[in-house]
Amino acid sequence: MLNVVILAAGLGKRMKSDLPKVLHTLAGRPMLGHVLDSARQLDPARITVVVGHGAERVRAQYEGEPDLCFALQQPQQGTGHAVQQAVPQLLEGDTNDVTLVLYGDVPLVQPETLRRLLTARGQGVAVLTEILADATGYGRIMRGADGKVLRIVEHKDASEAELAVHEVNTGMLAAPTARLKDWLGRIGNRNAQGEYYLTDIVGLAVADGVPVQAAHPAAAWETLGVNSRAQQVQLERAWQREQARRQLEAGVTLADSERFDVRGSLICGRDVFIDVGCVFEGLVELGDGVQVGPYSVLRNMTVAAGARIEAYSHLDDARVGRDARIGPYARLRPGTTLADGVHIGNFVEVKNSAVGKDSKANHLSYVGDADVGERVNIGAGTITCNYDGANKWRTVIEDDVHIGSDSQLIAPIRVGRGATLAAGTTLRRDAPPDQLTLSGSKQRSVEGWKRPTKKK
Ligand code: UD1
Ligand code: CA
Predict the structure, then answer these.
(1) pTM for the whole structure
(2) Which atom of ligand 1 is nearest the CA belonging to 75?
(3) Ligand 1 in contact with 7 (CB < 6 A)?
(4) CA–CA separation, 84 and 181 (whole Å)
(5) Which residue of 7, 126, 304, 357 lies most exposed, with the fewest beta carbons within 10 A?
(6) Based on the domain organization, do 163 and 253 belong to the same domain?
C-alpha cells in the first residue's frame, strides 16, 4: 500500500508574496498541482499534504478531493518533524507498505522517476540523488568503501571532507511505512539548525540493517526546487523546452522551440505547424495538417484536420471544423462550433453559436447566440443584437442566406433559407425565404445644400 506525503509547510520567504509558495504557478497551474498529478500516476492509497504557512489557502484550493488529506505542521521544525505530522494519516495494510516523500516546491518530478525510486527500494529505503558540480546547500550522500549508502549529512553539519562530496540528496525518498514511523520517533534535533532532519532516517535504517539504495532522476530539471521568482521562471522555461522537445519528437513543426508555451496538454496530429509565440491552455487538440499562425492563444480547443488559424487569433472553448480558415485577429468564445470549411476573418467575434459548412464571416462582425446554416455569407460589420439589456436571444440564419454589410439582426429573429438582406438592414422582424429584405429609408439628395465652414 502506497502513501505519498508532500511537504508544503515552508514559508517561501524569497517569493515576496502573500500567496503560499506551493500555490505559485508553473505552466499555468499551482506547483502543488503538478506534484499531485505525478503522485496520482502511481495510484497511491492516500496522499497527505503537510501544510503550515498559508495552510488555509492551500487547503481551500484542494478541499474535497477524496484521495487527499492534510496534516498541519505548526511551527516548522524541519523535514523530519513535517513527516511526523503526517504519521497519523498513513495507511497500512499489506506487506508492501511504503511511504514516498515529495516536496510541494519541486513541481516537475516525473512519474517515471518516482517509479524508478520505488523499484530501487526493494523492501528497504531508497533516496533520489544526483551528482552536482556545485553541491552548495544540499545534503551530501555518504557512502562506505563498498559504495553502499551510509547516511546523509546536511551542508551546515558537514566537515571539509564531507563537503567535497558531489552526490546530493534531492529530498525525495521512499521507505517502508512501519519502519519509517519508528525511525521518525527516534530522530533528534541536535544539529547545526536545531531541526528534526528527515535525512537522519537513512543512518537509522543502515544501523537497523535495512538496505538503502540510491536512484537517479531521468532529467536534472525534475529535481529543481522553486524558492524565488528567478528560479520559478527558470523552471518554467526548462519545462516549456521539454514540452517543445516532446512535440518535435512527435512530429510537430515549431517555428521556434524557445517561443512556445503549453499550459495544460496539447495533442497534435501529423504534420502540424505552430508559429512563434503561441500559448496553449487547458486541453487543446489539433488535427492532421493544422497550421497555427504567430501569437495565437488557444484554450480548450478542438481544431480539425487541415484548418488554418492565422496570426493573433484568440480561441477559447470552441470547435473548428476541417479546412476552416480562422483569423488573423479572430476571436472565438465558449460554446462555438464551426463546421467544415467555415471562414472567420479579421475582427470577427463568434460566441455560443453554431456555424454551418462553408459559411463565411470575413470582416468586423459579431455573431452571438446564433444558429447559422450552410453556405451563408455574413457581410462586413454585421451584428447579431442578442442582448436586450436583460436577456439573451437567439438568431437563426438558414442555409444560403446572404447578409449585406452593416446589418443588424435584432434577436430573437429568423432569416429564411436563401434570403438576402440588403446592406445596412436593421432587421426587426423575420425575413422570409428567397426574398430581398431591406429596411433603410429611401435615398434622397438635397439640392443647393452647403457644407458648413469654420467661423473666422
Ligand atoms: C532538504 C534536505 C537536504 C536536501 C534538500 C534538497 C533535510 C533535512 N534536508 O534541505 O538534504 O539536499 O532538501 O532541496 O531534509 N518543509 C516543511 N516543514 C519544515 C521544513 C521544510 O514542510 O519544517 C518543506 C519545505 O516547504 C520544502 C521541503 O520541506 O518543500 C524542503 O525544505 P527545505 O527547507 O528547502 O530543505 P533544505 O534545508 O533545503
Ligand atoms: Ca531547499
Answers:
(1) 0.94
(2) 23
(3) yes
(4) 8
(5) 357
(6) no
User: Nine-digit cell at 286?
Assistant: 489539433
Among residues 66, 85, 67, 65, the alpha carbon closest in space to that of 75 is found at 85
CB-based contact 36:246 (threshold 8 Å):
no
170 in the same domain as 242:
no
- Percent of the chain at pLDDT > 70 equals 100
Grid cell for residue 109: 518530478
What does the pLDDT read at residue 392? 96
Please tell me the number of Cα atoms within 13 Å of 219 on its side-chain side. 13
Q: Which of 173, 207, 223 is the last residue of a domain?
A: 223
Tell which one of 31, 79, 109, 201 to mutate to probe ligand 1, the residue whose CB is within 8 A of the most ligand atoms: 79
> What count of Cα atoms within 13 Å lies in the side-chain half-sphere of residue 426?
2
CATH of the domain at 87: 3.90.550.10
State whether the Cα torsion 323-328-334-336 is positive or negative.
negative
How far apart are the C-alpha atoms of 326 and 344, rounded to whole Å?
5
If you write DSSP's letter for every residue of 189-249 in order, what string do you get? --STT----TTHHHHHHHHTT--EEEE--SSGGGG----SHHHHHHHHHHHHHHHHHHHHH
Sign of CA pseudo-dihedral 396, 400, 404, 405: positive
**386-401 pLDDT per residue, tens:** 999 999 999 999 999 9
Amino acid at 435: Q
Report the separation in Å between the CA atom of 27 and the middle of ligand 2, taken as the mean of its atom positions.
21
Query: Both 291 and 321 in a single domain?
Result: yes
Specify the pLDDT at position 15: 96
Structural domain includes residue 448: no
- For residue 11, name the pLDDT band (cuts at 50, 70, 90): confident
Q: How far apart are CA 306 and CA 272, in angstroms?
A: 9
- One domain for residues 371 and 292: yes
Domain that holds residue 106: 2-223
Hey, what amino acid is at 2? L
Note the pLDDT of residue 440.
Answer: 80
- Spatial CB neighbours of 291, under 8 Å, sequence gap ≥ 6: 272, 273, 274, 275, 307, 308, 309
Residue nearest to atom 22 of ligand 1 (CA): 9
Domain count, the chain: 2
Nearest CA to ligand 1 atom 32: 79
Known active-site residue 314? no
The secondary element (H helix, E strand) that includes residue 350 is: strand 348-351
77 CB within 6 A, ligand 1:
yes
Same domain membership, residue 160 and residue 91: yes
